[in-house]
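User: Show me sequence and structure for the first protein, then do the same for the second.

Assistant: Starting with the first protein.
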Amino acid sequence: MSGLGFELLPACLSPSAHGGYFLTALKALVASFLRPDTCVNSNFSRSSGVVLAVIFAAVSLLHWPLLRLPYFWDEAGYYIPAARDLLLTGSVIPHSTPSNAHPPLVMAYLAAWWKMVEYSPRVTRGAMVLVSAFVLLGVFRLARWVSNCEVAVAATACTALYPVFFAQSTMAHVDLAAAGLTIWGLDSYLGKRWRPAAWWFSLAVLAKETALLAPLALLAWEWVCPWAGRVLKSQLCFHERGRRLAVSLLTPVAVLSLWYGYHYWRTGYVFGNPDFFRYNVQATMNPLRIMLALGMRIWQALGYMHLWVLTLLMGWAMTRPAVCDGDIERRRIDLPVQFTFGVLILAYVAAMAVLGGAVLARYMLTVVPLVVILAVSTLQRRIRRWPVLIVLVCIAFGAALFLNPPYGFSPEDNLAYRDYIVMHEDAESFLEARYPSARVLTAWPASDEISRPYLGYVTHPLRVVRVEDFTAEEVIAAAQERGRFDVALIFSTKYEPVRSLLGHWHTWEKLKTRFFGFHRDLPPTIAAQLLGGRVVFSETSLGQWVAVIELEHVVDASLRRP
């Protein structure tokens, strides 16, 4: 092994009998960039920049084909317009889109990159890859702190390949940044570094307001854990209560309050525009909806996108005794830390079952890495050939990137979002080339894609006649006013597999329609018949589709280029 340079590895990265080829390869990569003592003492902190560079290079390479893609869904609908408004006017309150009261940190970050380099999707996605690498560095540091370097390497690799994390790593959303800053705050909190903890948690709430859940949950646990420890007859408290701890966890509350005060002063409302507040808060306060959303959140935290492979392996490992290396039993994560992780997971599952009109998996990105760390640590402690299982998990995550689940899901949770973007690029390029002056009937977000060239789909804005979706009711209503538009750009606004796991269970479909905005879009041929036109362009890809319908009255040559 000496010829490969393994004599340079730090003690906790040296290949052992249980290390396996997978971790050996990862260790060799890490060791080629780190000094021998990097991972075992304080030099690790000084080498974080090198580790970040390594992770950034790896993540950039994995995401390279995705960096040129135009903006997708909520990116196009809110975050990019808001960041662009900040770039052009200096205002942290967007004016080209209704304000959702999201704090401005991520939008300011993107605007700064555009100012320094240029405005383009490639710059945006490269900037978000840097955020992703920063988050993964936080996962590595946290896992190393609570366990060891082998667990840290494996947990970081699993997190990076988890489909929701992977897909979000290039997307201009705020959730990944909020998750990463919260993880850095948790690392500081566990290390009793109160000032950095206050700093990271405050930055997290400036990325997204729901990041306040973490410090509030930790503060509540600090008061509950002595009582819980007495009941369970175990030491569960990680810290002794004190003023510095309380100040550290309450500082984000003050920071977020200042933002909301400023937002109210500028707009006249606190928690976003009335429609946003109604959709994400008022409309969710139904006991049946909360119970359904709770089940979905538990699934997203423990099983979604093949995460069940890792959690089932963890459950199986729990039935086995700990492995001993010589006479020493492998270390587990300390019980107080496990309870701290558990409190955060439960807090996010419960809160996100109540808040948020759309039950999006990206809202759970803060706690999924904690589940991964706990699971990987359990495998390392109890299974001698655990690296083989880590390889299996990574393969499962890789498969979920390309294979859509047998139930409805958001395309932004794996590479289905790329298929959506490519199909819309093709359809809208066709539309712009053939009907540059047409009035186009379509729904959001395509209405923004063809009316805002800076989103990357068209070179000049097209005139839009907007409908809510492509259900039979909406299409029939549009057909009664055919004179208002010339062509229709229709597409799948909801992903539904041809053969769903639940089939067409009528009760579940009614519940989804009532509480989660589910509907069925008409297929292009039926929509064309109702609109009195013909399909002149169509594409399909793994359950998604897009089509252009030309109405029969479109005969004016001025609508077409020579």
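Switching to the second protein now.
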Amino acid sequence: MKISYNWLSDFVTWKEKDPAIIADRLTASVGEVEEVIVQGEHLKGCCVGKILSLSKHPNADRLSLCEVKTDQGTKKVVCGGSNLRSGMRVAFAHVGARVRWHGTEMVTLEKTKIRGEESEGMICAASELELSSRFPLLPGQDDHTIIDLGDGDEDIGTSLTDHLELTDVVFHIDNHAITHRPDLFSHIGFARECVALGLAIWKKEKKTKPQTFPKNPPPFTFVLTEKKLVPRYCACTLSVAGLGETPLWMKQRLEATGWRSINLPIDITNYVFMETGMPLHSFDASDIHGTVRMRTATEGESITTLDEVQRKLCPGALIMEDDQGIFDLLGIMGGLRGSTKETTRSIWLHSAIVDPANTRRTVIAMGHRTDAATVYEKDVPPVMAKIGFLRALELFLTLMPEAALTSKLIEWGTDGKSKPIPFSHKDAEKHLGMPVSDATVKKVLTDLGFKVTKTAVTAPLWRINDIEGSHDIVEEVGRIVGFDRITPVLPDATIAPPPRDKRLHAFRDDLKEEGFLEIVPISLVSPQLISACKMDPNEAYSILNPIGEELSLMQTSVLPRLLEHAGKNLLQADQTLKTFTCTHVFNRREGEWMECGIFMANRKETSLVMNPFLKIRQLLVDEFSGVGSTVAINASEKVPPFGHAGRSADLLIDGKTVGILCELHPDVNKAFDLPARSAVALLDVTTLLELPKKPAIFSPIAEFPAITYDLTVTLDSSKSAEKLISKIRGSSPLLTSVIAADLYDGKPLESGKYNLTLRCTYQAKDRTLTEEEVKKEHERVEKLVMA
């Protein structure tokens, strides 16, 4: 957004005239000023010169020798311009000036010789002085075309800056800083801010006569099918004798703020847009026929816009059409058919407030953004429709040749009504943390256009969309008074960090030490991914405005993303893929909780001892025992849909279920191209962290050595080994430990059988055991196993 200092001067008298100070105050209180552009600053050392004589260069066919009259006397110059003539006034750059050499890099001019002839300066083309917008190339011209300032002696030796009236200062405002303020996309809006900041005072407002409209109806009727999309509208027709010529002052201001002069009707609408913040459009009324309908587009419709590009309309785009078809993409860009041109003699001027959400959806869907759309999507207040419309009419009737109104005013909707918000200076003091007098609050808000009483504040109509409560009013007072005036105060509360439960961090570190890779996938999933895990996507929360269907649901479990990663990366693992992830999950029935998923799969068939289910089981037993908890692993009472029916277990601590361990259902393995014995554990971390901490109790290291014996027994896979191990553990007072040392289920064992190798450790607390007494104890254990 570019704001002109000279343009602001139409409304205010400056108290502060230094552009740098103005920019700093605006940055601190309104919006970031990215750049202060001083017009003509790059033209230092350039003046209006006159070619006194012109002759061919003796050593170059395409160069000329010129004598140029300047403010520093007559200069000899070698020039390659294609349109030079004697008596021509030109833009002359002295030695020491900086120019863009042939429109490319910037160089500092020096006195030099070109093909043996001395040259003191440069006669410039528009591209070399960055004046291409002021002097556009005409058909048949090229980059060697010199700026032609005409013949005569006027302004010879005058600085080029003064001659071209490049005396403005332009403030380039960052649009992102004012996205919630549609009133600031205008010069009037920034003039108001400058007054409130004490940088300027208002000039006396010029009184304008109210427009008197004839009673004639326009030559077409209006039909609005979507009233919510166009809540406020003003329009009329007027006749003109011709397009006329845009005055220099208007061209200069449009150019300063980034606009290109096209023709007077379009320039007027752009000028009013920049002045008031209200996008407008003028149509050639003779190109509109029959009934004008404002409706939303359907699939397959298109429009040729002003830039002569045929664009396919997205369904829902707000358009205007007559009996001959669509002629306007309302709120974004007009159509080529209804545009004003040299033959235009009847103009239809309209000012429409359009729905901001519809405008934004259309811009995104069509990939076509314009200045009007950028402002419309910020929710232009209804009051601006008529303000901008009447200002444009004033300029049309003043600047257009023989312009006259030819129809009555067509309008609908209201300007809205502001509700008083309870507020006093005490509210400002409370929330800002500094003393603010009642007089200061009243002056600040009054300067910004608010109506202030002792107990309430009413926002002006141009602020009704962004002033919603007392917190917004506090912000207005704070930013104008200056947030830098708030005295820094250290907080009264302690800054000691709150106690942290480090169990989850320790658990993750342990998993990494065991060779598990932590993944951090995105928490949004697709219905198809949830269904592939045999889970119900209807239990997931939907995203209101998803990027696409693949990211349309909040994850109900970490399992879908865990398995998706495994399916894509299993072949990258050497032998075994081991991954885990811990994050929040969401369910319509149970709300939100944190879940940790642990996955393991072998690329190839391996021995039973490397079974993923058993490896994860042992990992969890060891991990929980390390923090003083004993985890019970029981056959699942209710097998989850993604789990194998006979290979699923509930994980319990102190009788409370904290997770599930299972091999995956064959259908799930198939969906993700995983091997048959893939296993996963899902832990409810939220429930785990709610359990009381139990310090691990360590036994002292025994003073006397231990003796171990291995015992191998063949078992049926349908029977649990846990009962056998529990039975053995209590069979001898010298038996201190019984663990499963190995598992085997290969040949020559029958199908459904497996060998379990138990490692029995014998130890006494008061002596060193002999081999004979340990053998006796172990024989008792063997008899117990064989019984």
